[in-house]
Amino acid sequence: MENKEHWENVYTTKGPQEVSWFQEYPKTTINYLEGLNLSKTANIIDVGGGDSNLVDALLEKGYQNIWVLDISAAALEKAKARLGEKANQVQWIVSDITEFEPEMKFDFWHDRAVFHFLTEEKSISKYVSIVSETVSETGHFLLGTFSETGPLKCSGLEIKQYSEADMKSAFNEGFTAIKCFTESHTTPFNTVQNFRFCGFKKN
Hints:
30% of the residues lie in helices and 31% in strands. The protein has 203 residues and is an alpha/beta fold. It has one domain: Rossmann fold. Helix 1 (2-13) runs parallel beside helix 4 (73-83).
């Protein structure tokens, strides 16, 4: 409950340019997704999507089956307001990721900076289990976390940093890593955060 209250407060009191993770355009994710050559009818979920512009880009690219999940209802309401009538083309889910019980499989699971907020083994194991059960047999999973040289905190909360080996180890039972890389993200405050990304394919 504390987690939910924290994020509701963040999205109620701050605009897009006032949060460190803001991206004008999610170039890394879109480039990776387009490299997979998935069908425009593929089931795509953005975990911790908040009021990110990724959903706008996915709609612009013609993807038809999009889900956006966030623990904050306020974040999703902001995204819906921005999209206007286009918001009706998206499925919106208010949920803590560790309590998510999907009724379907996804062809592409995207998470840029939710996983690293899970600092307890129980929560990490739950997340890994949900991803393994939810990604389709031929599905893909792109994960972004803070690297070993990235921040130790975000939005006032402790995070868990990841090396490439750590990320591969966490998901080695259900997935094969097909591409890992680092990226420096410049925040709206002109600070730099080092992210590590790994793209996985279901075994």
